[in-house]
C-alpha cells in the first residue's frame, strides 16, 4: 500500500515537474472543444454527449500512452527490481484512472464553457462518467503497455484500442444520452449493469495479462 | 499417416455432404401468401391462396383456419385455379371462441401429395364476438398427406433456409477455432514454447477466414431476408468489430520486430481479444432489439426452427466445419513454423 502511494506520488511529481505533459493534455482538450464550438456554434444534447466521449477518448489515449512513454524502458526495469508487479500495476492503474477522470472533468468544464451543459440528471451522469473512466483507463493501460514497445506506437495504439473500446463506449453513450432528460432509474439500470460488467472484465483481464506485458 | 488424420477426412466429407445435400434436397411445399388477410367475422368470404412448390391441381386437398390446436374451421368450398393457386371459401361465424375481438388465425392446407402446410397468423378475424360457444370451430385435423424428403418452407425465408447449413456452422467453427488459438496463447505464456505461438497464430488466421466467410454468407442472407446486405443491425456491427479486433492482432504481430516480444504481446492481446469476442457476439446483441435470431427475445434455435430433415444436414455441417477449421488452422500454424525456422537458419 505504501509502495502504491509512493509510486503514485512519483507519477504525480514527475508530471507536475515536467509540466509540459499536463499542459499539452489541457491544450489538446481545449483545442478540441474549441474546434467543435467553431464548427457547430450551437450543439444539441445528443451531439454534445457523443462529442464529449469522442474528445475524451482521444485525450485519454494520449494521456495513458504518455504515462508509459514518459519513463523509458530502463526506468521501467528499475521499478521492476524495486516493487512487485501487482503493486506497479495498481499504482499505474490508479494513476491512469485519476488522469482520465481529470481529462473527463476538464472536457466537461471546457465543453460547458463553450457549448453549454445539457445534462439534466447530473448525479447519474457523474456515475456513468466514473464507470466509463475506470473502463477506459483499464483498457488503455493494458493496450499501451503492449503498444509502447512497438514501432509507430500511437498508430498501433489506435488500431489496438479502438475496436476494443467499442463494447464499453456503446453502453456509455447510451447511458449518457438517457441523462439528457429527467430519468427513471429503471431505464438506466441495464446500461449501468452492462458498464459494471465490462469494467470488471477489463480489470480482470488487466490483472491477468499485465504481468506478462510488463515483465520484460 | 492416415491413422491420425481420420478427422480431417471426416471433416472434408461432412462439409462436402452438407454442401451437396443442402443444395440438392428440395424445399417442401408452403403457403406463399393469402389475400385478403383481414376478414370480418359473421360473413362469408372467399380468399385466394398462392402456394410455393405446391401441386394443388393434382389430388385431393382440405383447408382449415386454425385458432388453436382444438379449434379449426373447415373451408366450405375449394376451387383450384392451378397448381400454385387455390380459392377457398369460409363461412365465418360471428361467435369466435377467443377472448379478443380481433384474432389471428393460421391457415392450414392438407394435400394428398404435398402433405401439411401451415401459414402462421395468415388471417386476422375482425369484429369477433367473444364466446364460449364453439360448435363450428370444434374440429380436429388429421393429416392424410404423403411425406417425402424435403426442407421445410418457412414463410419469407423460402429457399434461403439452406443458408442455415453454411452461415451458422461457420460461426460455431469460428468460436472453437479462436478458443483453440486462445488456449495456445495461454500455453505460450506459460511455457514460452515458440511452437505454441505459431499454433496460436495459425488458428487465429483460420478463425479470421471463417469470420469473413460468416459475415459474407450472413450479408447474402440479410439481403434476402431483411432487404439489404448491411442493415446496421447490432449483430452485424458487433461481429464486424470483433473481426476488427482480430485484424488488430495481426497488425500488432507484424509491427513488433523482436520475435519473442511479438509472440508474447500478441499472446496477451489474443487472450484479451477472445475475452471480448464472447460479449460482442453473444451478450450485447441479446440485450437490444435485433433482426437476427437470438436477440430481442426471439430464440436462436427454437423448437420450430429446425425440423428433423434439417437436423440431418445441419449437425453434420457444424461438425464438418469445426473439423475443417481446425485442419486449416493446424496447416497454417505448421507453415508458419516452417517459414520461421527457414528464416532463422538463413539469418545465421
Question: Which ranges of chain B are low-confidence, i.e. pLDDT below 50, for 5 or more consecutive residues?
Answer: none
The string of secondary-structure elements of chain A, in order, is HHHHHHHH
| Structural Rg of chain B | 27 Å
Q: If interface size is counted as residues with C-beta under 8 Å from the partner's C-beta, which chains form the largest one?
A: A-B, 27 and 27 residues
Going across the biggest sheet of chain B, name each strand in turn: 2-10-9-4-5
**Which structural class best describes the helix and strand composition of chain B?**
alpha+beta
Shape, principal axes of CA atoms of chain A: globular
Helix content of chain A: over 70%
Mean pLDDT across residues of chain A: 83
Low-confidence stretches of chain A: none
**Strand portion of chain A, in percent?**
under 5%
Please bin the fraction of helical residues of chain B: 40-55%
Number of domains of chain A: 1
- How many E strands of chain A? 0
Give the N-to-C terminal Cα separation of chain B. 33 Å
Largest sheet report of chain B: 5 strands, mixed
Structure in words:
The complex is a heterodimer of chains A (216) and B (348). The model of chain A has no long low-confidence stretch (mean pLDDT 83). Chain A is built from 8 helices and no strands. By secondary structure, chain A is mostly helical. In chain A, α2 (20-40) runs parallel beside α5, α3 packs antiparallel against α5 (85-115) and α7 packs antiparallel against α8. Chain A has one domain (2-214). In chain B, the strands form 3 sheets. Chain B has a 5-stranded mixed beta sheet with strand order 2-10-9-4-5, with no helix packed on it. Chain B is of the alpha+beta class and 348 residues long. The radius of gyration of chain B is 27 Å and the shape is elongated. Chain B has 2 domains: 30-149, Immunoglobulins (Immunoglobulin-like, Sandwich); 158-347, no CATH class. Chain B has helices at 6-24, 167-191, 194-225, 234-255, 259-287, 308-347; strands at 30-35, 38-40, 44-52, 61-66, 72-74, 77-82, 85-91, 95-96, 103-111, 115-126, 129-130. Chain B contains 6 helices and 11 strands. Classes of the chains: A mainly alpha (216), B alpha+beta (348). The interface between A and B is medium-sized, with 27 and 27 residues.
Amino acid at each position: 500500500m505504501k509502495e502504491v502511494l509512493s509510486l503514485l506520488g512519483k507519477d504525480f511529481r514527475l508530471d507536475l515537474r515536467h509540466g509540459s505533459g499536463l499542459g499539452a493534455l489541457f491544450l489538446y482538450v481545449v483545442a478540441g472543444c474549441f474546434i467543435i464550438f467553431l464548427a457547430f456554434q450551437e450543439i444539441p444534447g445528443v451531439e454534445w454527449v457523443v462529442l464529449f466521449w469522442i474528445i475524451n477518448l482521444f485525450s485519454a489515449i494520449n494521456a495513458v500512452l504518455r504515462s508509459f512513454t514518459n519513463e523509458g524502458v530502463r526506468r521501467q526495469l528499475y521499478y521492476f527490481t524495486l516493487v512487485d508487479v501487482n503493486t506497479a500495476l495498481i499504482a499505474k492503474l490508479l494513476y491512469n484512472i485519476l488522469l482520465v477522470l481529470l481529462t473527463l472533468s476538464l472536457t466537461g468544464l471546457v465543453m460547458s464553457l463553450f457549448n453549454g451543459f445539457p445534462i439534466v440528471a447530473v448525479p447519474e451522469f457523474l456515475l456513468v462518467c466514473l464507470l466509463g473512466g475506470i473502463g477506459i483507463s483499464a483498457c488503455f493501460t493494458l493496450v499501451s503497455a503492449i503498444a509502447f514497445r512497438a514501432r509507430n506506437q500511437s498508430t498501433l495504439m489506435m488500431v489496438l484500442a479502438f475496436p476494443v473500446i467499442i463494447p464499453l463506449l456503446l453502453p456509455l453513450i447510451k447511458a449518457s444520452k438517457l441523462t439528457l432528460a429527467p430519468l427513471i432509474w429503471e431505464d438506466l439500470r441495464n446500461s449501468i449493469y452492462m458498464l459494471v460488467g465490462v469494467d470488471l472484465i477489463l480489470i480482470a483481464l488487466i490483472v491477468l495479462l499485465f504481468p506478462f506485458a510488463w515483465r520484460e | 499417416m492416415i491413422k491420425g488424420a481420420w478427422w480431417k477426412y471426416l471433416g472434408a466429407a461432412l462439409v462436402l455432404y452438407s454442401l451437396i445435400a443442402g443444395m440438392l434436397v428440395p424445399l417442401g411445399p408452403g403457403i406463399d401468401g393469402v389475400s385478403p388477410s383481414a376478414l370480418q367475422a359473421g360473413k362469408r368470404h372467399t380468399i385466394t391462396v398462392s402456394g410455393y412448390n405446391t401441386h394443388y391441381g393434382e389430388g385431393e386437398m382440405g383447408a382449415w383456419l386454425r385458432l388453436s390446436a382444438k379449434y379449426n374451421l373447415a373451408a366450405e368450398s375449394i376451387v383450384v385455379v392451378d397448381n400454385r393457386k387455390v380459392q377457398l371459401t369460409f363461412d365465418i361465424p360471428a361467435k369466435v371462441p377467443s377472448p379478443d375481438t380481433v384474432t389471428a388465425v393460421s391457415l392450414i392446407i392438407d394435400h394428398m401429395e404435398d402433405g401439411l402446410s401451415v401459414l402462421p397468423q395468415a388471417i386476422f378475424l375482425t369484429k369477433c364476438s367473444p364466446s364460449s360457444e364453439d360448435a363450428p370451430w370444434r374440429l380436429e385435423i388429421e393429416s392424410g398427406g404423403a411425406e417425402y424428403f424435403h426442407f421445410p418452407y418457412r414463410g419469407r425465408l423460402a429457399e434461403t433456409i439452406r443458408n442455415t447449413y453454411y452461415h451458422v456452422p461457420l460461426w460455431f467453427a469460428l468460436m472453437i477455432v479462436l478458443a483453440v488459438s486462445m488456449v495456445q496463447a495461454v500455453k505460450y505464456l506459460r511455457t514460452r514454447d515458440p511452437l505454441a505461438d505459431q499454433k496460436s497464430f495459425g488458428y487465429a488466421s483460420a478463425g479470421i477466414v471463417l469470420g469473413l466467410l460468416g459475415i459474407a454468407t450472413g450479408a447474402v442472407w440479410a439481403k434476402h431476408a431483411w432487404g439489404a446486405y448491411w442493415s446496421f443491425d447490432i449483430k452485424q456491427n458487433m461481429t464486424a468489430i470483433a473481426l476488427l479486433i482480430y485484424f488488430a492482432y495481426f497488425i500488432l504481430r507484424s509491427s513488433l520486430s523482436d520475435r519473442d516480444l511479438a509472440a508474447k504481446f500478441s499472446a496477451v492481446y489474443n487472450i484479451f481479444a477472445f475475452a471480448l469476442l464472447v460479449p460482442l457476439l453473444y451478450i450485447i446483441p441479446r440485450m437490444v432489439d435485433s433482426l437476427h435470431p437470438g436477440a430481442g427475445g426471439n430464440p436462436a434455435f427454437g423448437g420450430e426452427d429446425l425440423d428433423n430433415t434439417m437436423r440431418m444436414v445441419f449437425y453434420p455441417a457444424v461438425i464438418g466445419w469445426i473439423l475443417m477449421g481446425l485442419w486449416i488452422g493446424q496447416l497454417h500454424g505448421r507453415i508458419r513454423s516452417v517459414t520461421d525456422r527457414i528464416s532463422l537458419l538463413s539469418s545465421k
